[in-house]
Amino acid sequence: MMLFPRSSYMKISTSFSLLVALCVGAGLVSCNSAMQAYKKGVRHFEAGEYNPAIENFQKAATAGNIDAARLNYYTAESYRLSNRFADAAPFYQKAIDAGATDADARMHYAYALKTQGQYAEALQQLEKYVQSKPTNKTNLEKARREVETLRVVDALSRNKSNFQIKNMGNLNSPGAEFAPVVRGDELIFTASRKDKVYKNNGLPMLGLYKTKLGQTPDETGNAPQLFSSNVFLAEANEGTPAFSKDGKTMVFARGNTGKRKGGADVDLYISRQGTDGNWTQPQLLPVSDSLAWDGSPAFSADGRTLYFASNRAGGAGGIDLYRTNMDASGRFSRPVNMGRDINTPGDEIFPYVAEDGRLFFASDGHPGLGKLDVFVATRSQGVIRVENLGQPVNSPADDFGLMFVDKENGYFASNRQGGKGDDDIYFFGTSVAPETPTIAQGAPKVVRYFLAGTVQANETPAIPLDSARVRILDEAAGAPIAEVTTGQQGTFGKYPLQEGKDYTVLVERKGYLTRRVPFTMQGRSIPEIFLTKPETDTTFNVDVLLDRATLNRTFVLENIYYDLDKYNIRPDAAEELEKLVTILKDNPSLKIELSSHTDVRAPDAYNMRLSQNRAKAAVDYIVSRGIEADRMVAKGYGETQLVVKNAQTEEEHQRNRRTEFKILSY
Fold it and tell me: Is the predicted pLDDT of residue 332 greater than 80, yes or no?
């Protein structure tokens, strides 16, 4: 399916010497056959062709001579990465029982168990994963959140809406049907019905199809037909359409062609309906990121904002939701991440904006019953609340792609047990009384948030600093909400915070460089399901490290990179130089030397000129941001001040290619 990118794509380091050793004493013909099957499986796996990878791993397993831990783990990964968690679970268990050492095996196994409703077993595996202290910080944060969810999953399961659901049986097939959208009297949806088979999951490739709605929204009329011959690429996955308010502009996702090696290969495309009723040939939407997976678009009710999901760089982790505005000419603005109240270290996908402005989306990062649950986000007085839609819409399986036909009825997709195939489209409505009563919600619980911290000298060991002036600034208002001087222990706080707001902790002390530390309340609100008391106080602690303003002290600017043999300021370098701009603005008496250094892989004279040009370019950029030129001296040192002499590796050369600033006066 095109539902998910290969965000967890990995390379296999194959230990063929081990395989050869296992063949000693075994039948060489059968062992060679097993090795060949294993090697083919590896190649398919690395190409993202998980279905043929599974077939070859199964052939290799019949020989019984392959390392069980590795073989079962890669079989499990092949099922997981093609979104077949139920099939993955037993292979994760076999891999772990055989001593698999892969760091994330237990986390993936836990999610596979959760999709089967085996919550206690999933919690056990996740707790072991967290205790192992994995180095992947994003996965660790995600796992910790999931541990808290599984501990209160009984309370989540008691949350029931007054919807009834019905499988759209005459619409669904043994393949996949999802992403339903109503346009006029037609239901447009995504289905795996093309002739070519997608090697990722073994299903036919996805396309866009349409069917007439019946007299009631839980029925459809004639057999589904192809949506448009102009919006049809036989060897690609196409789906998840979104239509403008007038229904004449469509944005959809297309990809998985296999032509972009090593890339995400799913982008957003746009097509418009002409006066003849035909749709134009799709054009790539400029907001797409060629290095990312972009999909599941949705227009706002007024058609002026496009929402979509993407795993592009700079997000909260996994897949995030973004929005972009469309002007009267049909041009889109730069996409904006929707923030950490919505986005989590997990996946947020399939946005839908109702007429009343509520945002519905699917997520596996917010507290839910399954892998993907449907959530609704509302904003009130600047605070965003995210709520699980509850049963029966949500289940232990994937539930996603919800949309409303009217205020009480709509459609969504799910791969829950009891369906006709992979993903099925379901109708939901309130026209029939629910089988189980809605659980009455008690009085809302109150959480008060506070900020406290410590100011220390950035030394080893760190020394608490008294007499430091601390101001906590409300970024939106541009004014301090608190101002204090630290005592002997260097501590400050606690001061009340508001949900959803951004703050800055600004610290000044004589003899030290003034520093500001950003702090956001976005994504820090505690979901009500985790609250056990009517009132809860939570304090966040911030440690601020100040650098001594010592003459000739040198600081390295991290991540200042230049293109080969060039000295123009790249966007990523500009982002880092902005931090130096802030330091200079906060310390108006500071004068510095800004220096550039190269590695040794060019003639000395060339490196000296190049480094001087790079240092001057950095200074010119900072001057353009409002800093006086006489506060800075540009100096190129070429290769005369190497950090790593006799550098051999690219990492060592990179340490020599650095940009620094040195305090000249303060």
Answer: yes
- Percentage, residues of the chain above pLDDT 90: 62
Q: Which residues contact 366 (CB under 8 A, 6 or more apart)?
A: 344, 346, 373, 375, 386, 388, 527
For 555-591, the pLDDT digits (tens) are 888 777 776 677 788 787 888 899 999 999 999 999 9
**Structure tokens, 229:** 């011959």
| Residue that has been written with the tokens 């040939």 in this structure | 281
Q: Name residues whose C-beta falls within 8 Å of residue 375's C-beta, 6 or more positions apart in sequence.
A: 360, 361, 362, 363, 366, 368, 386, 387, 388, 389
**Preceding amide of 461 cis, omega within 30:** yes
Please count the residues of the chain: 666
Closest CA to 415 of 441, 395, 388: 395
Count of C-beta atoms within a 10 Å radius of residue 355: 11
Which token pair is 453? 């911290």
3-state secondary structure of 613: helix
At position 425, the amino acid (one-letter code) is I
The tens digit of pLDDT for each residue in 431-485 reads 544 443 344 455 678 899 999 999 999 998 989 999 999 999 999 888 899 999 9
Write down the residue that tokens 């399901």 correspond to. Answer: 529
- For 53, phi then psi, to 5°, come to -60, -45
Q: Is 414 exposed, middle or buried (0-12, 13-18, 19+ CB in 10 A)?
A: buried
Amino acid identity of residue 512, one-letter, is Y
| Cβ-contact 149, 377 below 8 angstroms | no
Residue 425: which of 408, 400, 404, 407 has the closest Cα? 400
Q: Give me the residue label for tokens 């309130």.
A: 430
- Helix ranges (H only) for 200-251 are none
Question: Half-sphere exposure (CA, 13 Å, Cβ side) for 102?
Answer: 25
What is the C-alpha separation between 271 and 275, in angstroms, rounded?
A: 13
Q: Alpha-carbon distance 616 to 119, whole Å? A: 59
Question: Running DSSP on this structure, what letter comes out for residue 522?
Answer: T
**525 DSSP assignment:** P
* pLDDT tens-digit readout, 386-398: 999 999 999 999 9
CB atoms under 10 Å from CB of 537, counted, come to 12
Structure tokens at 343: 């986005």
**Nearest in space to 653 (alpha carbons), one of 593, 584, 598, 589:** 598
pTM of the model: 0.80
Buried b vs exposed e over 144-164: b needs ≥16 C-beta within 10 Å? ebbbebbeebeebbebbbebb
Nearest to 272 by CA among 228, 207, 233: 228
φ and ψ of 593, to 5 deg: -105, 125
The residue whose two tokens read 């929707």 is: 338
Collapsing DSSP states into helix, strand and coil, what is residue 307? strand
Extract the tokens encoding 536. Answer: 């809860």
Tell me the two tokens of residue 463. 């020394």
CA dihedral (114, 119, 122, 123) in degrees, to 10, reads: 140
Cα–Cα distance, 578 to 575 (Å, whole number): 5
Assign 3-class secondary structure to 321-348.
EEEEEECCCCCECCCEECCCCCCCCCCE
Q: Which two tokens stand for residue 458?
A: 């950035």
Tokens 């619409």, residue located:
171
